[in-house]
Every structure is written in structure tokens, then in C-alpha cells.
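This protein record is not my work; I was only asked to verify it. The record follows directly below this note.
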Amino acid sequence: MAEDKKGGNVNVEKEPSTFSKMESFVNKNQKILTWVLIGITAVILIIFLYNRFVSNPKNEEAAASMYMAEQYYLIDSFNLALNGDGLDLGFLDIIDQYGSTPTGKLANYYIGMIYLRQGNYEDAITHLKKYNGKDNIIATMALGSIGDAYLELDNNELAIKYYNKAIKNSDNNFTTPMYLHRCAMTYEMMDNYKEAIRLYKEIQEKYPRSIEARDIDKYIARAETALKNK
């Protein structure tokens, strides 16, 4: 009870607590919440069953089917690797039949690398861009190889863009100095000697044990001389 200004008593009801409101909401909507919970559980179960009985077995089947194509790739039998030998599938068959699996995505990487070696640069770019697997090194190599393809197409700006993507995608002693070096050489081709020198020195300082670091002094000296004479 509370007293008003005239001396009378006034009933004041307390606001329901948050817990009370929640309890009331649950009671009123119990059936709906139950069905929502059942729906979420069903979705989780469907995803689990799909991965267990459809996706994973299909990927295992794809990996087994791609074995011979990988062997042909390793010995540079690129036409057989791409198209198969009449008995075993080639990479192009793999992406048709298993394109949504991790193995199918890896097949796109192989196809892109083959096209790059064959000088089919546009198709190489198309397939390398389709690789989105979880292997960080392969993903980095795919980005760097896209840069190589653009370089062959005389698109230096896009080559540098993808070399930088490869550099940022993974920091290691193999791919990072390799793509730093290619990026620096591309800058040299564009007469941007300052950027070239910066990248060469980054190799020298951060990756001194890499293959690219062995002759890095020569590249730095060449770029510095070109900058002075510019």
C-alpha cells in the first residue's frame, strides 16, 4: 500500500520480474518452442548423417577414383591426367562426378596447374580460382599460380595482386620467399625498383635460409643500380 497526497491508500502492483516474464512466455509458447527445438535437432542430425553416410563415403570414392590421375600428373602425362586412360578417370571426370567433394576441389587445382604448364592461361585461372580446399599450402600455391598465369598474360597488376595474396595467405620458408621474389621481379619489370628492393630485402632479412636468399644480394644490387640510373 502507498498513501496518496489526500491521505488515502493506493494499491501499487509490482512489475513482473524478467524471470516471470520469461516463464510466462515459455508457458504460452511451449508448443512452438518444442517444435523449434525439434527442428534444430533434426537439422543437426541430417547434417551429421549426410557427412557420415553420403559426403565422407563419396569423398573416399572420389579419392580412390583420382589415384591414377594423380600418378599420371606426377610423371607429366598431362593428357592422361586430364582425360583418363579409358579405364581410370581423369581430373575432368572427377570434377564432373565429385565436384562438391574435397577431392573434387583438389582436382580443380591439378587441372589449373596442368593448363598453366600447357600455356592455357585463361583456363588455368578459372580452375585455380575454384580451389577452396582446407590445405593452406595448396591454397597458397593456387593463388601464386594464378599470379603466374596473369604474368604470362602480361597483366602485371593482377599478377602482383595474386602474388601478394599468396604471400599473405601463409607465412612459411617455402612459398613466402618464392612469391616475394616473383612479386619483386614483376615490380622490376614495371620499373618500380623501390618496391622490388623492399621485397628483396624482406627475403634477405626474414628468410635467409630460403633458396631465393642465396643470390639475393645480386638482385638487390641490380635493382639499386637501375634505380640510380632511372
